[in-house]
Amino acid sequence: MAAMDISIHATYLPHNDHDAAIAFYRDVLGFEVRNDVGFNGMHWITVGPPGQDVSIVLYPPEATPGITDEERGAISEMMAKGTFASINLATKDLEGVFERLQARDAEVVQEPVDQPYGVRDCAFRDPAGNMIRIQQLS
């Protein structure tokens, strides 16, 4: 069977503060802002690492079709606790990236550590509470 030609194009993370989301992903992580679409007071922001085709779409969770007010409340609570969404990133210089993010006042959740499952990583939270784990590449 031939391999399919499929790549990851975008992943979605919720945000609840347009300006804070842009400041974190652009100014702290160094990502490009590729698109910023506003509609009815909400914003969908597309960001990504320079030179890579994959993107993160930061979306307003309240715009998700079909969810109830109770579900919106649960999402807001989970975002505030940092348990709703996450993404794993990777770098060849984990220590250097950790130091730069810490110096830019990113919210540190975990300093670089060797995990029992075989990776070395660290963790931060973005302004919406999303967990950002960064793993050391070999």
Automatic annotation (TrEMBL):
VOC domain mapped to chain residues: 7-137
InterPro entries, sorted: Glyas_Bleomycin-R_OHBP_Dase, Glyas_Fos-R_dOase_dom, VOC_core
PROSITE patterns: VOC
SUPFAM superfamilies: Glyoxalase/Bleomycin resistance protein/Dihydroxybiphenyl dioxygenase
Top-level taxon of origin: Bacteria
PANTHER family: GLYOXALASE/BLEOMYCIN RESISTANCE PROTEIN/DIOXYGENASE, GLYOXALASE_BLEOMYCIN RESISTANCE PROTEIN_DIOXYGENASE
Listed name of the protein: Glyoxalase/bleomycin resistance protein
Organism of derivation: Amycolatopsis deserti
